[in-house]
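Could you join me in thinking about how sequence relates to backbone shape in a protein? We need material for that, and I hope you will provide a protein of your own picking. Once you have written the record down, we can walk along the chain together:

…
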Amino acid sequence: MTGALDFLVNLLNLRQLDESVFEGAHPEGERQRTFGGQIAAQALVAAGRTVSRGRVHSLHSYFLRPGDSSAPTTFEVDLIRDGRSYTTRRVVAFQHGRAIYNQQTSFHVDEAGPEHQFTIPEVADPDSLPTLEERVRDEIGDLAFFSDLPQPIDLRYVDGLPWTGSRTRSPYQRAWLRARGVLPDDQLLHAAVVTYASDLALFDTILGPHDLSWADGQVMGVSLDHCMWFHRPVRADAWLLYDMDSPVAYGGRGLARGFLYDQAGALVVSMVQEGLVRLLATKEPA
């Protein structure tokens, strides 16, 4: 396991305070707000620690307030239902006595049933693509983007970087991703790492068709909710193709969908995210 991946695994190793109460740490370093994927992944781990049967098959969550990256987060798990096939949990994350995040999570014991799926898109092999660091160095020339925190996820875009002016104005993007190292055979940990990674690129798809960038000071974006469905067991330390699109943006909100395929072509995870996309007033040139 690399140092960067060890950093993420340690973040997901929550401290148990009570039977259904856990505490999650934050990475050191200055950040404007807590990374949403981190809180979602930690909440999933908290829920999973209280479940004895089945694996996670879905999570539905709302981001309620910006997280304070300088303070720990308390996760309170509501043991809603333990059934023979399905187990349901509700997790609320608190900071400074206020709820910042809410997650409804369901676990399922796999059963026999009909099978079908979308076909994996035909794209370049991940090993033939440059790393994100190489792309940023070549297209932007400044690696300050990577200086504040370790990068536990190897993210390789099939097309242009979604934040550069040279990108195609399209509501579609594709990227390969995997953890930077080998993880233990713990399906809850793999699902949590995938949850963390799923929030790294999906929101960018909403800005894809527009002449907007996070760096131009004209737009503010915040995740409002994030939903995931885990169809099959998943390995976060093997290459996964992230096929993303944004069907609509309207009224200050945008919707993005994502599908994760393993290299054998199996659709393993689907997700949908809605985000606040607020245009900011810009100063007219003198």
